[in-house]
Amino acid sequence: MEGAIAAELLPAETRGLGYGVLGSVNGVGDLFSSVVVGLLWTHVSVAAGLAYAAALSLLGAALILRVR
Q1: d(Cα 35, Cα 65) in Å, to the nearest integer?
Q2: CA 3, CA 58: separation in Å to the nearest integer?
Q3: Crossing angle for the helix pair 2-9 and 46-67, nearest 10 degrees?
Q4: How high is the pLDDT of residue 68?
Q5: Which pLDDT score, from 0 to 100, does residue 42 have?
Q6: Cα–Cα distance measured from residue 27 to residue 58, given in angstroms and rounded to the nearest whole number
Q7: pLDDT averaged over consecutive 10-residue blocks of the chain (68 residues)?
Q8: Is 7:15 a contact under the CB 8 Å cutoff?
Q9: CB 68, CB 5: distance < 8 Å
Q10: pTM for this entry
């Protein structure tokens, strides 16, 4: 879905750069989120890790809806 939204929002001449930035941001975000969830899971509780992941998923969905 993100790729489709990027295609709609970016001009054709910068679309390749936009996809590269999107992939980089997704990769760094995935790494950071995995580390945080792992730390919460290990040091706090399983529920804390899952709650963090669920909250960020809902926030991401809300941001996508707002941009559209």
Answers
A1: 27
A2: 19
A3: 30
A4: 66
A5: 95
A6: 19
A7: 83 91 94 94 95 94 84
A8: yes
A9: yes
A10: 0.69
For 25, the token pair is 């941001």
What's the one-letter identity of residue 60?
G
Task: Give phi and psi for 40, each to the nearest 5.
Answer: -60, -45
| Max Cα distance, the chain (Å) | 47
Report CA-CA distances (Å) from 33 to 5, 10, 11, 46. Answer: 22, 26, 30, 15
| Structure confidence at residue 6 (pLDDT) | 83
φ, ψ for residue 45 (rounded to 5)? -170, 165
Secondary structure class of 45 (helix, strand, coil) = coil
Q: What length is written for the chain?
A: 68
Q: What is the pLDDT of residue 55?
A: 95
Token representation of residue 49? 């890790």
